[in-house]
Write a sequence for this structure.
């Protein structure tokens, strides 16, 4: 059964995908026809509303084509991140601490999202999967609303600025990804952000709000308010906060470069907002200290000097990139502070991307995927504004050249919107998105959940106390949280906790049966009640066998299932 | 070729292609439209050939059953001279244009080489049609460029290279059809009926899959509409470019920017078939171990021989040797009659005691085993009831990879 309660085992997925593509094309045709009809003289119209509708419909169609065929939560069976998200929410709903991960007593590094999921599911575990499935749709729509409101308010709050904002949202959501992204280093930004990590997408929702607050920070009270919003963005997703701050710094620098009269005020505004934001978010940085090591070098964090890294952040987007360059240029010369801030976010994203190339040569390019998605969304957003403004420049000339509907000496806005929609819609995501061939997380979630996970976790969920902590297989631990709703002593899918070595000693003591003082400490300090073993886990402890564990008086086998290779055995620790 | 297959060379490819696109844009801004189009198409063909020239075998040959069976039919048709001959003994297949050509003497290896160029030819064919359907030189060139680079126009069908490599026969036939029809039409219409010409293109692209025996699909139909789409888009684009021109930045300069970035967003620019086409990576590597025993079979057995083997090798044997096989790879494949008798004969071969009557009824002359397959073992004769006459297996070939071919001889 899928999210909607349909049996999808016999669904013809290629045919279904094609049908959804055709719906997009049909919607595009209807939208263009409606706009042209509205372009008649004396017809009142709100063309921006059509663009907004198309953006919502496009996102919903792409979400639908991804989620409908899935019998499992998107990302399960294949994504550590997604299973971690499930686990975080599960243990909170089970009544455990809202600021700690499922690795017992570990302070959370992304505490907001699992609490939101728990809240949205009314703290009912059976609704968590549903919320996780619907969240990408909701966050995408919120993103559109946020862009529409903030960009239109920031650029003048007129019909024209609303059209700009609608195109900005349309582009940012549906044209930030391209067909060729299936072979890109970090794959499809829309899928990897909105589908896989809606918690990061929530940062995108909040970013326009922060930018608007910054643009209006002309008094000290407003600066503090902007700082408060900035720190909130940090709590949502700290990497987005860092990118936004870099954009603010470019904004201040641009004011000096342009020799604007307000450059001193802008600089002090930026300094104040960033300072307030950093101070307020500093407790979070303190919590992060055990997760982040900026200087750790790893080959997987490396980029070759001659790589096509620069092209990935620029021309891979095709015509969207020159449109963004034009949009940024146009915004940077405008009187609107918000427009200049947007332009500076685009410039900062480009600079950051090149900095990542340098870091990659030193094998220090951490979180480069997030920089990639950020540059894509910011570029596409600015490109949407660029397209609209190009249309406005061309409008009077087009009115002379075309015999179509005109408004005075210009092409009617609805006709212009129709023309621009014709340019943008054919390459938009819902017209080509094929999750089966382009998204490995979709393919993984299509597979039924393995029995070695489903059956033991049903036991844990229903037959053990919610506060119990499970020690044992660290790779399997994420299933314990995601599907068993129980916390674990150690999990490979999360960063090692600060007392990692102590926990390893306790784990070894539980497996070997001595020293008992460590086992007792594990029970008392960490609440360990169960030991979950698999053949792979036992292989890491030479000399330990299932028979040895069965013979121990301090362990009681409560569950045992599976074949020799994938057996899962759960022991209860006796006092 | 080993240099091309190195992952380190791919960034250089992308930078090289971008340089060519920039050169094309520069030529366009200088109003040298034809030269710009040539450079643009050179970049596109270079990108496609970069990958396809690395192929040692058809992509998917090692992993995709449908690909193996496609080549098996062609090889058997070529060897037997019968376009209807199925690769499994006693089966018949609907003849296609390709099997007719194979039966008439066109060798499958020649077809393999031709198919290597299918994506490039299709791109050039679409460009040619685009060139034919428009009027003025600039408009003509722009249509050609857009028609050849379908990705930014039609996302769904945008993956032109993959569509062509998935269905190379269709791409090849469609290319030849549309080019010849368009050229002929242009002579007669002198460019006054571009819609009609585009319709011919679409017909050619639809005819490709049909004539080559592969199913039509929605993405292929969309691909076929690329020249028409380009035809409609070019006037709008030129009007937009006119609207955006400035005294310092003329219309051709605006068009040049558009051309560069359309090329850079094209599916061919970023195409990485090793990550999107099943079996492409394997098809780039050298000769697999199976080629040696199959070469021996091709050289040492009569054309009408039937080869028995574990099912997994069946289509590969037929594709590489042109010999028919006893059993299809897929046990449930329709067409192979007497499936239980085939299974019984295979079982008797594995036990080293081929049933004489069954052997002659299926024409089996050789038996191939691969690494890991145990040698046939003859069960000790006891007080068994009278049995059907048995044949004997004689080892005729064995190599270091433990491939073995046995000849069936009378006891």
């Amino acid at each position: 059964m899928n999210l909607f309660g349909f049996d999808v085992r016999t669904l013809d997925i290629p045919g279904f995908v094609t049908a959804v593509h055709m719906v997009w094309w049909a919607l595009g045709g209807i939208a263009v026809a409606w706009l042209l009809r509205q372009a008649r003289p004396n017809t009142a119209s709100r063309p921006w509303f059509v663009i907004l509708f198309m953006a919502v419909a496009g996102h919903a169609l792409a979400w639908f084509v991804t989620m409908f065929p899935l019998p499992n939560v998107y990302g399960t069976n294949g994504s550590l991140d997604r299973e971690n998200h499930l686990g975080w929410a599960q243990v909170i709903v089970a009544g455990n601490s809202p600021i700690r991960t499922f690795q017992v007593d570990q302070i959370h590094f992304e505490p907001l999202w699992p609490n939101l999921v728990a809240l949205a599911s009314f703290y009912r575990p059976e609704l968590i999967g549903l919320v996780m499935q619907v969240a990408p749709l909701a966050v995408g729509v919120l993103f559109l609303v946020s862009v529409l409101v903030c960009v239109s308010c920031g650029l003048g709050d007129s019909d024209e600025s609303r059209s700009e904002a609608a195109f900005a949202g349309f582009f940012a959501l549906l044209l930030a990804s391209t067909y060729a992204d299936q072979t890109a280093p970090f794959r499809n930004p829309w899928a990897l952000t909105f589908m896989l990590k809606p918690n990061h997408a929530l940062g995108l929702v909040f970013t326009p709000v922060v930018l608007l607050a910054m643009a209006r920070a002309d008094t000290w009270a407003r600066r503090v308010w902007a700082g408060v919003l900035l720190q909130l963005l940090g709590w949502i997703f700290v990497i987005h906060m860092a990118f936004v701050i870099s954009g603010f710094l470019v904004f201040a620098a641009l004011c000096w470069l342009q020799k604007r009269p307000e450059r001193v005020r802008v600089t002090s505004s930026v300094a104040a907002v960033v300072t307030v934001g950093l101070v307020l978010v500093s407790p979070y940085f303190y919590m992060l200290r055990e997760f982040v090591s900026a200087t750790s070098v790893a080959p997987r964090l490396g980029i070759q000097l001659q790589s096509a890294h620069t092209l990935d952040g620029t021309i891979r987007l095709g015509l969207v990139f020159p449109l963004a360059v034009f949009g940024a240029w146009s915004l940077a010369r405008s009187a609107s502070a918000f427009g200049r801030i947007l332009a500076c976010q685009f410039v900062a994203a480009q600079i950051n991307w090149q900095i990542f190339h340098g870091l990659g040569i030193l094998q220090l390019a951490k979180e480069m995927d997030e920089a990639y998605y950020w540059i894509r969304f910011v570029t596409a957003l600015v490109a949407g504004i660029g397209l609209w403004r190009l249309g406005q420049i061309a409008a009077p000339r087009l009115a002379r050249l075309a015999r179509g509907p005109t408004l005075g000496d210009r092409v009617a806005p609805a006709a212009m919107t129709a023309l621009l929609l014709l340019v943008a819609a054919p390459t938009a995501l819902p017209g080509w998105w094929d999750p089966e061939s382009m998204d490995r997380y979709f393919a993984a979630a299509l597979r039924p959940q393995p029995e070695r996970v489903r059956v033991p976790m049903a036991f844990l969920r229903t037959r053990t106390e919610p506060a119990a902590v499970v020690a044992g297989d660290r790779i399997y631990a994420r299933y314990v949280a995601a599907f068993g709703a129980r916390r674990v002593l150690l999990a490979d899918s999360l960063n090692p906790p600060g007392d990692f070595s102590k926990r390893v000693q306790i784990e070894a003591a539980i497996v070997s049966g001595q020293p008992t003082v460590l086992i007792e400490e594990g029970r008392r300090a960490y609440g360990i009640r169960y030991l979950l073993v698999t053949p792979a886990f036992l292989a890491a402890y030479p000399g330990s066998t299932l028979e040895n564990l069965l013979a121990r008086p301090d362990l009681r086998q409560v569950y045992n299932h599976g074949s020799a290779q994938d057996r899962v055995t759960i022991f209860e620790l006796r006092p | 070729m080993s240099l091309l297959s190195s992952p380190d060379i791919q960034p250089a490819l992308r930078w090289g292609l971008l340089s060519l696109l920039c050169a094309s844009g520069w030529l366009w801004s200088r109003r040298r439209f034809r030269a710009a189009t040539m450079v643009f198409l050179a970049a596109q063909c270079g990108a496609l050939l970069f990958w396809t020239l690395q192929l040692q075998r058809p992509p998917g040959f090692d992993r995709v059953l449908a690909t193996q069976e496609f080549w098996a039919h062609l090889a058997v048709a070529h060897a037997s001279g019968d376009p209807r001959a199925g690769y499994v003994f006693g089966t018949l297949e609907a003849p296609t244009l390709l099997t007719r050509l194979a039966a008439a003497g066109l060798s499958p290896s020649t077809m393999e080489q031709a198919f290597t160029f299918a994506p490039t030819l299709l791109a050039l064919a679409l460009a040619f049609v685009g060139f034919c359907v428009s009027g003025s030189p600039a408009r003509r060139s722009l249509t050609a460029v857009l028609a050849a680079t379908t990705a930014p126009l039609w996302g769904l069908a945008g993956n032109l290279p993959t569509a062509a490599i998935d269905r190379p026969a269709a791409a090849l036939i469609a290319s030849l059809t549309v080019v010849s029809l368009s050229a002929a039409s242009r002579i007669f219409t002198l460019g006054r009926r571009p819609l009609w010409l585009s319709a011919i293109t679409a017909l050619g692209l639809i005819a490709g899959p049909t004539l080559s025996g592969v199913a039509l699909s929605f993405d292929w139909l969309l691909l076929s509409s690329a020249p028409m789409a380009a035809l409609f888009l070019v006037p709008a684009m030129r009007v937009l470019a006119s609207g955006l021109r400035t005294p310092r930045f003329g219309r051709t300069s605006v068009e040049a920017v558009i051309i560069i970035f359309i090329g850079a967003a094209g599916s061919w620019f970023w195409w990485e078939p090793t990550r999107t086409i099943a079996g492409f990576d394997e098809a780039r590597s050298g000769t697999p171990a199976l080629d040696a025993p199959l070469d021996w079979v091709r050289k040492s057995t009569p054309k009408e021989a039937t080869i028995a083997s574990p099912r997994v090798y069946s289509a590969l044997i037929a594709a590489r040797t042109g010999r028919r096989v006893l059993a299809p790879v897929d046990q449930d494949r329709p067409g192979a009659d007497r499936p239980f008798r085939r299974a019984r004969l295979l079982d008797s071969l594995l036990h080293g005691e081929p049933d004489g009557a069954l052997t002659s009824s299926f024409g089996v002359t050789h038996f191939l085993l691969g690494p890991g397959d145990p040698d046939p073992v003859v069960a000790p004769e006891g007080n068994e009831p009278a049995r059907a006459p048995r044949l004997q297996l004689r080892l005729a070939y064995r190599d270091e990879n433990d491939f073995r071919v046995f000849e069936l001889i009378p006891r």
User: Anything to note?
Assistant: The beta strands of chain A are 406-407, 410-411, 469-472, 487-488, 528-533, 555-561, 568-573. The interface with chain B takes residues 18, 21-22, 178-180, 182-184, 304, 306-308, 311, 315-322, 390, 393-395, 397-398, 401-402, 419, 422-423, 426-428, 431-432, 437 of chain A (CB under 8 Å). Residues 457 and 484 of chain A are 4 Å apart (CA to CA).
